[in-house]
Amino acid sequence: MNIRPGELRDLSAITAIYNQGIEDGIATLEVRGKTEEEVRLWLFDRSERYTKLVIEEEGVVVGWTALQPYRYRAAYEGVAELSIYIDRNQRGKGIGRQLLSALEKSAQANHFHKMMLMVLEVNESAHQLYLKCGFRDIGIFENHGYQNGQYYNVRIMEKLI
Q1: Which in 4, 123, 140, 142 has the greatest CB count within 10 A?
Q2: Is residue 17 situated within a structural domain?
Q3: Alpha-helical regions (H) of 69-134
Q4: What is the extent of the structural domain holding 88?
Q5: CB neighbourhood size of 47 (10 A)
Q6: Does residue 124 sit within a domain?
Q7: Where does the record place the N-acetyltransferase domain (predicted)?
């Protein structure tokens, strides 16, 4: 496995993996798949401080992670929100742990003091991964997101770095 900075040439793979997360229904509450242009604007149209990493197996992108602004107020410049998505055929192989470790190092190098995330409460495998990587539970947004006729709780987690 090789972890490297995400580049525009990875956009197709990043988009495909993100859309798997939408289809699977436990990674995000998006209601429709995203186009490459929508993902490009979301991930690549921001400061380089907000790292994007991909992990490859034999030259094929099998997962990605990225930092994004938590809020746009100056008081929160040291806090980054993270996203992470793994190809559905590669989950459970330790890829998420590798990506989160690399992302944390990058976040520290870019002068963040905290990483935070939000994860659907029903996504217990992701919750366990984050706990193993040193994140702690902050709380639950109850009935926070609506999809497919039901409300979902969203867990908030953080890690001081």
Answers
A1: 123
A2: yes
A3: 95-109, 124-132
A4: 2-118
A5: 8
A6: no
A7: 1-161
